[in-house]
Amino acid sequence: MVNQDLAVDPEIGFEALEDEIPVSHPAALRRRVLGLAWPVIGENLLETLLGIVDTWLVGGLSTAAVAGVGTGLQIMFFLLAALSALSVGSSILVAQAIGAVDAERANRIARQSLVWSVLLSVPLAVVGLALAHPLIGLFGMSPEVTQIGADYFRVTMGTVVVLVALTIGGGVLRGAGDSRTPMVVTAIANVLNVALAYGLIYGRLGLPELGAVGSAWATFVARGVALALMLFALWKGRNGIAITGRWGWRPDWSVAREVLKLGVPASVEQLVMASAFLVLTVLVARLGTDTFAAMRISMSALSLSFLPGFGFGMAATALVGQSIGARRPRLGAGVAQVATTWAVIWMSTMGAFIFLFAEPIMHLFIQSPHVAQIGAQGLRIVALTQPFWAIGMVQSGALRGTSDTRTPLLISSVGMWTTVLLVWLGLKFVGGGLGMFWGAFLITSPVTAGVTWLCFRRRVRELEAE
What's the domain count of the chain? Predict the structure, then answer.
């Protein structure tokens, strides 16, 4: 059995809450949500800063280097989406097991998720290595950019097993309510990564000069260290989760099937999103190297504004999952409301900052005035979408916590591909460059946010009626 204080906040344990508590004690729920969300935001902030620093370091080489690394990363995100099912499914099931105070089930899910991460990611790495150059060639960039992208992609895909296992380990811990350990591990890895990236890109600190591909090698080494620390934490045990012992390591398809039942729709959702962004990237790439580089840099800058959405969305998944395990659906609704409110406040504030200082932000990454001007135009437009993305991200996370991963899939699929269609039509018949790219999201994001919010409310009513 898991100690009650491990499964839930000691001040507002789920088992002690009556159905009316989410309304009468909003401060208690706020503490619970913020207590889990801020380390997630901190972890993602560190990861984002790492990407920003890498972009800044690579940007010191050339615009072609930025574009080449951008193509490699775009395909990498697409392929990794195929493996996100394990992370999402295991996190939801662990959260529900912790809420139901079932430590044995939670530990079994943790072990099996790690085992299947290796079994599924190794073949993907082999395929990625073999098809690196043809895949990067799909962007139709110059030979120099294509070669840089292919070299970067080979290193990244060759080490994908480490990244997938690290992602799953963090998801398991967050499902158990421990978001601090992944944050600390990420902080340690990022400090190491920055030093290695600087040394390997420019040949400093006694390291060989590898150019843009040096950032990929630095990231691999840093993530390898992070994985070792994450596995050590899981082995010692955190919040009722422990992977010690010999039992439970043999691949068990029944557990994998249960994890994948929840995770596959979320994985398909990520694939749909990634494939849509891949198509959008190809469309933008054909507008020229400067526009493509501006798009990549603007996305790096915008990644900071997404952090509250990611953090509160993950917190909603874990806490709603625990409330469902404890048979408190109304508590889950209260958690989602608090998480959504705070995400909207944070992301709207950051959107206003981006709108006001778009051009100076771009100049932090690139010296070219032309590229900075192109990127700033897009940043100002997409800054207006921030409150709608906040609602959609958190409400989608809340739906996943209730074991409904299909509804977010349907909403995001329709929304993203509608955006792709609008961008294609706009660039073909109207023009507008990068502004048209981000402007399409300003049309679709309010609709998807509203639909997701309504669907979560309906899901809670269904669970209360059971």
Answer: 1
1 located within any domain: no
Cα separation of 42 and 46, whole Å? 6
Domain span including residue 386: 13-465
- Could you tell me which of 109, 122, 409 has the C-alpha nearest to residue 257? 109
Q: Describe the crossing of helices 406-429 and 253-285 by its angle, rounded to 10 degrees.
A: 10
What lies within 8 Å, CB to CB, of 308 at 6+ separation is 41, 342, 343, 346, 347, 350, 390
HSE-CB for 110 with a 13 A CA cutoff: 35
The pLDDT of residue 282? 80
Rounded Cα–Cα distance for residues 178 and 301 (Å):
28
40 part of a folded domain = yes
Concatenated DSSP letters of 27-54: HHHHHHHHHHHHHHHHHHHHHHHHHHHH
Whether 92 contacts 400, CB under 8 Å: yes
CA distance 296 to 30: 35
What is the C-alpha separation between 197 and 56, in angstroms, rounded?
11
* φ, ψ at 86 (rounded to 5°): -65, -45
Question: What is the DSSP code string of 347-416?
Answer: HHHHHHHHHHTHHHHHHTT---HHHHHHHHHHHHHHHTTHHHHHHHHHHHHHHHHTT--HHHHHHHHHHH
Q: Tell me the whole-structure pTM to 2 decimals.
A: 0.71
- How much is the pLDDT for 310? 82
In a domain, 106, yes or no: yes
Burial tier of 49 (Cβ tally within 10 Å: 0-12, 13-18, 19+): middle
Q: Which two tokens stand for residue 171?
A: 């998801």
Rounded distance between C-alpha atoms, residue 285 and residue 287, angstroms: 5
In a domain, 412, yes or no: yes
Q: What is the dihedral of CA 387, 393, 395, 398, to 10 degrees?
A: -150
Select from 124, 151, 128, 149 the least CA-distant residue to 137: 149
Question: How many CB atoms are closer than 10 A to CB 225?
Answer: 16
Segments in the chain below pLDDT 70: 1-26, 48, 51, 78-86, 248, 301, 432
pLDDT score for 82: 63
The dihedrals phi and psi of 238, each to the nearest 5 degrees, come to -145, 125
